Fold:
Amino acid sequence: MKATKITANTIMEAGAEFNLDQIDEVVESVLNTVKNSSKNILTLKGDLGAGKTTLVKSIAKKLGIEETVNSPTFTILKSYKIPVQSQGVLGVIAGRFENLIHIDAYRLDDPEELGALKLESYFADAKNLVFIEWPEKLANILPSSTIQIQLETIEGHTDAGAPDVVKENIRKIKIVE
Ligand SMILES: Nc1ncnc2c1ncn2[C@@H]1O[C@H](COP(=O)(O)OP(=O)(O)O)[C@@H](O)[C@H]1O
Ligand SMILES: [Mg+2]
Structure:
């Protein structure tokens, strides 16, 4: 575990590497970024397994959402009520947003299905805090004003020097606001 604390600033300036023990610091950093921004849509880019769903689940948990947050790969969109909170950053976020919307556009290829989902109406409602996995699939309808999160799996070397072994539990996150 790294000694340096992960903050919104470090993630935005240089990006930060983290393992699952540090995900709470990443969650707090993302929530601080939302707090200090007028934007309500966050895009999550990264390969399969990069940790997009894991991050949304962890954010939902931090916001006090008790329902299980699963990847909405087949339903495309899931909406969760954000419970009232009284203190700190959580209080600010819960005061501003009513719903956490989780979209996974991975399987979205049919323009008719896309039209039927009416995603634009979810984007336009400032009471919705929207997280989008595979935003590339929504390029045509995505508002220009989003907070962009990039996640990647870090590849490196084991202590024994074996080449190109994936450090399975380490991810790198970068946020562009
Ligand atoms: N530092 C980390 N951050 C996020 N996920 C991690 C991390 N280390 C290991 N994992 C694991 O990697 C997997 C990421 O899967 P998931 O969040 O579903 O990715 P995605 O939604 O990007 O396809 C999970 O099994 C998770 O437990
Ligand atoms: Mg996912």
